[in-house]
Amino acid sequence: MKLKWIVLLVLTTAVLFACVKEQTPEPVVEPTVNPNATFIEPFIPPFFPPMPIPDNNPLTEEGVELGRYLFWDPMLSGDNTLSCAGCHFPENSFSDPNQFSTGINGDLGNRQAMAIVNLGWGEGFFWDARAPQLEDQVVLPVEDPIEMDQDWDELLLELAATELYPPMYEAAFGSKTITKERTGRALASFLRTMVSHQSKFDRQRLGLYAFSESEERGWNLFQLEGPDPQNPDNDMTGGDCFHCHPMSLMQLTDFDLHNNGLDSVFIDPGYFAVTGDSADIGLFRTPTLRNVELSGPFMHDGRFETLEEVIDHYDSGGHPSATLDPLMLYTDTGLQLSDQDKEDLINFLKCFTDTSFVSDPAFQNPF
User: Fold this and answer.
1) Cα 242 from Cα 311, distance rounded (Å)
2) Which CATH number does the domain 61-195 belong to among 1.10.760.10, 3.40.630.30, 1.20.58.340, 1.10.3720.10?
3) Residue-level pLDDT, tens digit, the chain, 367 residues
């Protein structure tokens, strides 16, 4: 009799457990994209390589438009005064004409705001390449205390409380749920549509523009090595620009990190702060030269106000240090550029200017 009651108790417990288990709701899996959204292909100009698009963030018209609104919305900052565009001005190729940007608390950054142009082909974002993908990069300034200083949980509640954003998130992602990840995906999608491709340089490649004599000389100097350190009597010299700013893939950057001889002692450790490897002290990401005429001041710390100063730095050969890039061969001799060489190089650099890009209505304030 006792055994019968034990068996009955065990069976009853099992049934109750099964019922509870059946009543436990399955976790809600939010879609990564609205299947009914308008999917679009990235714009690939002539001579450009394919643009890598993450599988979990395909381009859609709805996602791009949401990203544009978010980019221009000061709600992303802690006091609702500073948008992404507040440090990335269109007329400056979406960079900051100030040496350092000012955050909502009056704090100055310690690095120059990089231009936003053709980022869809990039990798390793920020000057120290600490963000592997655009989706990683775009969310960090929001929470940075010296930039937008916004709490993400608070921001998501603010966005959800608006009439504007829940329907836009639903159109882009399939539900009105607003998350940090979705916000990052939308912003990254918008940035991938910001493609510069109508400069003199681009038109020359298409046979639609002929360089002036000075621009042609600058083009040749850009692609020539500097003087041979082992043969100082050789009078053939160039700007030695092409190693870090190759023209082959049309982006005018190798997306790599280099110590370009700015200092012998480093206040800003650069990539070392990411890796902890002493071999990375003073290394910074190569910026694109697209729209370089518009995007000064120059270098990671904005120390040079003009292109003339930039050319003078490289002409000097730079400062030696333990991590100086092997491509910086001319710390002893300099490049030995003439005044005419420098003028021609700058005239060629201005061929990368694309005014149609900075004035494109698709990138402007939607509010």
Assistant:
1) 14
2) 1.10.760.10
3) 444 444 444 444 444 444 444 455 666 567 789 999 999 999 999 999 999 999 999 999 999 999 999 999 999 999 999 999 999 999 999 999 999 999 999 999 999 999 999 999 999 999 999 999 999 999 999 999 999 999 999 999 999 999 999 999 999 999 999 999 999 999 999 999 999 999 999 999 999 999 999 999 999 999 999 887 666 666 668 999 999 999 999 999 999 999 999 999 999 999 999 999 999 999 999 999 999 999 999 999 999 999 999 999 999 999 999 999 999 999 999 999 999 999 999 999 999 999 999 999 999 999 9
Closest CA to 232 of 159, 334, 104: 334
DSSP state of 282: T
CA distance 65 to 168: 8
CATH code assigned to 197-356? 1.10.760.10
The alpha carbon of residue 79 and the mean position of all alpha carbons in its chain are separated, in whole angstroms, by 25
Q: Specify whether the backbone of 195 is left (phi greater than 0), alpha (psi in -120 to 50) or beta.
A: beta
DSSP code of residue 284 = E
Q: Supply the DSSP symbol for 363.
A: G
N-term to C-term CA, the chain? 79
Backbone angles phi, psi at 95, to 5 degrees: -125, -170
**pTM for the whole structure:** 0.91
Alpha-carbon gap, residue 358 to 224, rounded angstroms: 30
Q: Which two tokens stand for residue 333?
A: 């001799």
The bridge status of strand 257-258 relative to strand 284-285 is antiparallel
In the chain, CATH 1.10.760.10 covers: 61-195, 197-356
